[in-house]
Specification:
By secondary structure, this protein is α+β, with helices and mostly antiparallel strands. The chain has helices at residues 4-17, 22-37, 45-59, 67-81, 88-103, 119-131, 163-176, and strands at residues 105-112, 135-142, 149-154, 157-162. The protein has two domains: 4-100; 104-176, Glutaredoxin, CATH 3.40.30. The longest helix is centred in the first third of the chain and has 16 residues, at 22-37. The termini are far apart.
């Protein structure tokens, strides 16, 4: 059974052991993955892993291979060898979450119908104050279907203060026959 957390830990620990920066290794992983995906044919097994590693090294010829890039090349080859490369997107997502936690970064999505001036900076400040985050990355999205209000997602938590959700709650209460009480 594939456990993404184990692969992320192996990647991060290998980077640390080889003197590579986690952020640099993560950037290399994100950069090399689409290229590896674009290679012709199926990529799996020992032979394919060796070919992949040689192909990447040929493409990087003339470039100084940093410790982080070296670990990333070997990590991708290992995933191919163990026939787990199909899970690379999950590994990338989990690595990003790990690095965000390590660096105190909180990611939030704010969905709204009508933005107010300076909303983004005020929301960032409020989230940083509430969570103690070193940095808040925020994505603002217009969602007309909310009718009014907003929906805030921070990680797996959702605060839904939209008119749409309030109308749904009212509908549920009325359907249950309690008149909204």
């Amino acid at each position: 059974m594939f456990v993404p957390g184990n692969w992320v830990a192996a990647f991060i620990n290998s980077l640390a052991a080889q003197g590579g920066e986690a952020e640099e290794g993560f950037s290399a992983l994100k950069a090399l993955t689409p290229w590896v995906k674009s290679l012709p044919g199926e990529v799996f097994g020992s032979s394919a892993a060796e070919k992949l590693e040689k192909t990447i090294r040929r493409a990087a010829a003339g470039t100084v291979i940093s410790p982080a890039l070296e670990v990333t090349i070997r990590f991708l080859a290992l995933m191919v060898k163990k026939n787990t490369f199909r899970y690379i997107d999950t590994v990338i997502d989990e690595t990003e979450k790990f690095l965000d936690r390590k660096n105190g970064v909180v990611k939030a999505v704010v969905e709204y119908v009508f933005p107010l001036p300076d909303d983004e900076s005020r929301i960032k400040e409020a989230i940083a104050k509430q969570t103690g985050a070193a940095r808040v990355d925020i994505t603002m999205q217009v969602k007309a279907e909310l009718i009014g209000g907003y929906r805030l997602r921070i990680g797996d938590e959702v605060i839904d203060a939209s008119i749409r959700s309030q109308l749904r709650q009212l509908e549920t209460c009325l359907a249950a026959g309690d008149g909204g009480n």
